[in-house]
Amino acid sequence: MSEQNQVEKQLDKSSTQEIIQTALTTENEDIYWDLVHILRIRGGDEEFTAASHLCESKNPQERTLGVNIIAQLGAIQGNFRTCERGDIL
Q1: Does residue 17 contact residue 50 with C-beta atoms inside 8 Å?
Q2: What pLDDT band is residue 73 in, cutting at 50, 70 and 90?
Q3: Concatenated DSSP letters for 42-82?
Q4: By residue range, what is the domain housing residue 68?
Q5: Cα separation of 84 and 59, whole Å?
Q6: Residue 70: what are its φ and ψ, rounded to 5°?
Q7: What is the pLDDT of residues 31-60, one digit of tens each?
C-alpha cells in the first residue's frame, strides 16, 4: 500500500474537528487541499455545521477554510444543500 493511501485511510478515521484543526495548522498546501477534499466527500451534517461555524469566525483563515469546504460539500454524493450554502456564503 502506498504512503498516500495509508495517509488517506488514517484521515478517514479522524474526526471532522481533527481534520479541520490539521487543515488550519498545516503549512503544506497539498495536505490542506487533501483535508478539504476529505471533508467535502464526507458531506454530512457534521461537516456542514462545522464549515458553517468556520464561515462565521472572525479569523480570516477559518472563514476561508469554511468556504473552501462548503463550496463543494457533498458534490460526490449529490447532497447539495444549495439554500443553506447560499445563506452562509
Answers
A1: yes
A2: confident
A3: H-SHHHHHHHHHHHT-SSHHHHHHHHHHHTTTTTTTT---H
A4: 3-88
A5: 21
A6: -65, -30
A7: 999 999 999 888 888 999 999 999 999 999
Residue type, 26: T
Q: Which residue has the cell 447560499?
A: 86
Number of domains in the chain: 1
Q: Which residues contact 43 (CB under 8 A, 6 or more apart)?
A: 73, 74, 75, 76, 77, 79
Q: Three cell numbers at 55?
A: 464561515
Contact 6, 34 (CB under 8 A): no
Placement of cell 454530512 in the chain: 44
Here the cell at position 83 is 439554500
What is this structure's pTM? 0.76
